[in-house]
Every structure is written in structure tokens, then in C-alpha cells.
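In this supplementary section we document a worked example of the pipeline. Step one takes a protein sequence of length 400 as its only input; no multiple sequence alignment statistics are reported here. Step two produces a three-dimensional model, which step three serialises into C-alpha cells for compact storage. The input and output of this example are shown verbatim.
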Amino acid sequence: MPLWKQNVLMALYQYLKQMSDDPHDRVPRNEKEFWDVFEEDTGYAEIEKGYGNEECDKCSESAYRGFSFCPKCGRPVVTRPANGVPAGSTHKNQKLANTVRIIGLFLMLNCAAMLFFEMYTVFWGMDGIAAGIEHYSLGVLFLVPSPVVLFWVSGIFADSYYLFLVMAVTLSFVFLLYKSYRGIALVLKENTEAADDIPLYSVATLFAATIAINLIFNLLVTAAGSTPATPGPPAEPWMDWYSLLNASVWEEVICRIVYIGVPITIIALLLKEKEAWKRLFGHFELDNAAAVFIVISSLIFAAAHISSWDIFKLFPTFVSGLALGYLFVKYGVYASIMFHFLVDYLSSVEWVLGEGDTATALLGLFLIVVVFLGIVFVIWYTARVIKFVRAKISERQHTL
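The serialised model returned by step three reads:
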């Protein structure tokens, strides 16, 4: 019997003993009778293995309290109705979930290849950027929500800041691969459910979903007779390489660390929680406070892009902000940086290969795959958001 089920059984057994004057009369003879007795007395249902997370200490508590979504690890939990048939845990639903995961793993391989190429581009463009910034001052921005220059750096300070950006992206990439290794190893052992906890898998599937939403939204805007604006070309190529690298890192520092990590850390310090400082860089429980700050940071992130684009950039960028905030909370800032970098450096194919037929064909093929499969994950993540909201409502009702 898995550990999570042992914990649930023990907790519910103690509950039955406390509720009865003669607990021996109510102790079930087997597991089926146990659930029948408990459901009859309380209305709570059993969590089914397959959607729970054995490594999460909150899944058992979520089952005990009757929730349908774990507020800590973010994974849905499936309850059993009175007739004893697990709701949502049928062979058909399991097969569908595994099919979606296989699609996601294929996306993960494609996005991993693109990330490797983009990382190559970072080092490929270093000489050009280093030569370019010798003659320019670089502005360090803050989003309030419109971009405001905090200060300007030049000379050795500009070089140091640029090296910081390169190191941040490189370390995030290495950390993403390191954190994904264990889950990939489990998937190779035919445990497809392990894909849900692979950082690279989440980055890839959320990337595909947001790209699909962006394309669909732009098509709708164009069909309505409007044309979304895009920034003009830079004065020199290296400016694009630098500005997009800067956005991938610094916007995550502002929108995720400052607007999510800092307030969550302050709350943890006020509550005197252990190792509260670690929340500054993400990877903590997706509770109500975290959800609120994800939405706030996403609004600021979206509003900051209007000045360079137009009002039509607000919605798709807000959706991307939600994905970035989720990755920050679930995995840490390294995952949100990699998502942002994957999006912003898509044009690296054309930078390296030139704007010819080869680059256009390769990038076009990649985006066709991403958009087509991304529609699957638009539906998938929308369903998960709905489950999360319902779980929060259920949690509040049980608390009241």
C-alpha cells in the first residue's frame, strides 16, 4: 500500500475512534468497508492513486478534508463517489491523461532542442554585444507598471551587468536540466505520470499553450479589422540580442522575485515560518496569497509591454505572466527565466543562419508543431485552472 494511503487510513481510523463511544464496533474489516463507513458518516471520499503525489505531504490532508486539488503541489486529486467507482479515475481518463503526457514529452524534446540552440546563440553573440555596449549606456529598468529607468551603466559596469545576464541564463539552463533529470529517468522507466513534475516538461507545455493563445488572439484581432503593432527593428543587430536577453532575466527579477517572492517572503517572516528567505526565489506552496500575487504581477507584466507594442499585447502577455508566475511558484525563478528566454530568443535561428529560406523553414516548422500541439495544452491547463478554483472554493466552504 502506498505511503499516502497509509497516512490517510491512519488519520481516518483515528477520526472514527474519536467519534464513537465504542470504536471496536465501527472498525471496518477491510479497506472497502473502511471507506464505506467513513463516507456514510462524513461525506468525505477517497483520494485515488494516479492523481496524488506521494512525495507531497499535503495530498493526504487534502484527501482527508475532501478537496479535489492539492494546494501545495498543484496536482489534482480525484474523489470516489458513493457507488464505489472512482470519479475521473477510469481507464478511459487515465489513457487520455497518458496520451496528453506523451504529446507533452514530444513537445519537451522539441523545446529542449530549441533551448540548446538558443544557449549556443547567447555565446555566439557575446563578441558582438561586448563590442556594441562599449559605445552605449545601458538602462536598468523597473516596472511600476510602465518601464522606468532606475539608473544607467556604462564601461566596466555595463560589461559586468551583461556578464550577470549571461551567467543567470546559463545557470538557469543548467539547473533546469538538473532538476528535470530525475523525472525524465522515471518516464524512461514507463512511468508517464512522472512527467507532470518535470520542470522542463512544464516549461515546454506552458510555452506551447501560451504561443497558441497568442496566435489565436492575434488572428481574432486581425479578423476584426485591427492590426496588432510590433516594435520596429533595432539600429544594430546586437541591440536585439542584448535587449531580449536582458528581458529574459531582469523582467523575471522584477515581476516574479520583487512582485511575488518579496511579499510572500515578508508574509512568511511575519508568520515566523522556517527558512522563509527561500521563498524569495520561488518554489513554495501555491496558496491563496501566492495566487493573488501571481495575478498582480501578471497585470504589471502585461501593462509594461503596452508602451512598446499596443493595447492588443495586454491579454496574451497577461496569460504569459500567469504561466511565468506559476513556474516561479512551483519550481523557482530558474524555470520562469527559461520560459521567458525560450520565448524571447526564438528569432535566434534567423540571427545565426540569416533570414533565408533555411532559417524560415526551420523556425516555421518548429512553430507549427508548437501551435498545433499547444492547443491540446490550452484545453488541458484551462481544465486544471478550473479544478484549482473549484478546490479553493471547496476549501473555503469546509473552513467556514
